[in-house]
Amino acid sequence: MRVTQSMLSNNMLRNLTHSSTQMNKYMEQLYTGKKIAKPSDDPMIAMKGVSYRSELARINQFERNTSEVNSWLDNTDAAMDQTNQAMQRLKELAVKASNGTNSDDEYQSIVEEAKQLKEHLVDIANTNVNGRYIFNGTNSDTPPVEVDENGVITPNFDPGDVLIEVSSGITVKANTDGSTVFGKGEEDLFTTVDKFIDRLETGEDIEDSIGELDASIGGILDSRAEIGARMNRVELVENRLADQKIVTTKTLSDNEDVDFAEAITNLITQESLHRAALSAGSRIIQPSLVDFLR
């Protein structure tokens, strides 16, 4: 086959163009820090990148969900701690009122403090966090405890569970049924407190309230223990999500991020090849008539 001058020139230009393209590829890798600039550069890397990013987005959403659960649990535990403190104080007042050594003023002070603690317990039962009543289940936009103008308390706790997904297929109950903390029916905490106040006002059977208040305190402690168990479980899920995030982020980096040492070496090598091609190409071009006339 006869090799013409035009064939040499075309081949040289094609090779120079390819060499320039390769140099541009390596320079763009150094500028962006990524192996590819567009999906067509390497469809496999691009597809894997989409998958890894979807996994990271899923993990991030689960982390937000665990944060939401922790908000519910932390606020619930704090409210139950306040409830326990109020009930412990009522028990102390019951013990103090039953010893019969109080003056009239001291006794009246005990009655007034008991009434204030009752109102405080109602406020705790109606704890509202971010516009939600945490002790009223799925009916969180309505206060669970109502008090009429005569001071009569009507608890109506919704037993519905607020379930939040914290990992694939794993949900955690974020709320606590208010009736497990404050009781229900004739055994609810508010009835116990009302009986105590009535006994203070009549001065009879005050000792009976000590055991009743103690039983209510036991129920609160049981509920706090259950909250603690759920907190521990959420913490374990959080640790696992953190590990998954580290692994997925590393895998995404390995898939897309450029090896700078390799990219710099490739660029220097390609630049040397390009210079050599330019030098060789300048010798291949046939001299013109003017060159012979010099």
TrEMBL record:
This is Flagellar hook-associated protein 3. It is found in: Bacterial flagellum. It holds the Pfam family Flagellin_N. Residues 213-293 form the Flagellin C-terminal domain. Belongs to the bacterial flagellin family. It comes from Oceanobacillus neutriphilus. InterPro entries: Flagell_FlgL, Flagellin, Flagellin_C, Flagellin_N. SUPFAM superfamilies: Phase 1 flagellin. Residues 5-139 form the Flagellin N-terminal domain. Signal peptide: none annotated. Its main location: other. Keywords: Bacterial flagellum, Cell projection, Cilium, Flagellum.
